[in-house]
Amino acid sequence: GKDGYRHYMEKELHEHPLVIGQTLQRMIDPATRKVVLPDMPCDIGSIRRCVITACGSAFYAGMVGRYWLEEIARLPVDIDVASELRYRDPPLEAGSLGLLISQSGETADTLAALRSLRNVGLPVLSILNAEHSTMARESDAVLGTVAGPEISVASTKAFTAQLTVLACLTIGVARARGVLGDAQEEELVSALLDLPSRAAEIFSFGEDIRAMASVVAEARDVLYLGRGSAYPVAMEGALKLKEISYIHAEAYAAGEMKHGPISLIDKTVPIVATIPSGALFEKTLSNLQEAKARGGRLLAFTDERSVHRLNAIAERTIALPHVHPFVTPIIQTIAVQILAYETALLKGTDVDQPRNLAKSVTVE
Ligand code: M6R
Fold first, then answer.
1. Which phi and psi (to 5°) does residue 147 adopt?
2. Is the pTM of this model over 0.95?
3. ipTM of the complex
4. CA 294, chain centre distance (Å)
5. Could you give the CA distance from residue 20 to residue 139 in angstroms, rounded to a whole number?
6. 60 near 236, Cβ under 8 Å?
7. Whose CA is nearest to atom 8 of ligand 1?
8. CA–CA separation, 66 vs 43, rounded Å?
9. Ligand 1, atom nearest to 54 Cα
10. What is the rounded (10 degree) CA torsion for 193, 196, 197, 201?
11. Ligand 1 centre and the CA of 104: distance in Å?
12. Catalytic (active site) residue 2
């Protein structure tokens, strides 16, 4: 049941801290504080490239994974949505690892992509929530997300569990490749272990997020902007808003704005910015200043450390807990998902069963 929550989505949003914690428990040895990867389908230290594929939110999780694997594990990554990869017939190098991400393990396009990767001889590792699914049976190895059943059509906790697994996988791969020292591993693992309690703090921002939602709910179109790993978070926020509130939303890499979308900006198109402290903060801020100068209304998700920089330009700011830059996409994701939920409540839509959508897309 819904345990007293109004919707499964609300219940599942509140399960974020628990699910992140459970997933970490499965992947980090509490005694050594080291990531322990189960049997991998190949020698993980000698792979030359990783080919990630998935659909929808799982694809956005994969995009965050790409930033991590490239930056921290120094592993080249290709990523594409499964419906494109399966027909593209790209040249796949030996020494590549196929990495699939799916909550249900039954998505038709992802399953077809899995089969085509295996057909050309690539080992396939899948990050799955459904342990007894078709993809689980057909993969060479599985990393489980410990999210429990997800009922709401809009994915929430399964997505952050996917990010949690990808973060641990990144650490394991980086160590196996010899590019991660003990001190750096300890720093990243601490950041992960800190997450469940930091994630729980986000629920104290309910009123601020509702105030933001009241701006979003009035709009016909909304622009989401972010850079680096906050860019796929913007994409996830825009998808969730579209799915459950039926408001048109698009996400752009903040640096792309001046190549087109900036012409949309006026006071009727709110801009939701995901802008955590970190290396790309100043760059994103300058994009937001440009938007502001053109009459844009900014709604910013930042953190305690940087909020003072945004107060002057943003109509609404939310100062999320400050965490290690590695894990900011996980914290930011929860916040943008709550914004979509609160907006859908104001619109009065059928949150758990949005029109035209199925929980698991088992046909092409
Ligand atoms: O079960 P899967 O993770 O393979 O599903 C992929 C997408 O269909 C799914 O993430 C979809 O985009 C959600 N409705 C997003 O909220």
1. -95, -10
2. yes
3. 0.99
4. 29
5. 23
6. yes
7. 56
8. 19
9. 4
10. 140
11. 8
12. no
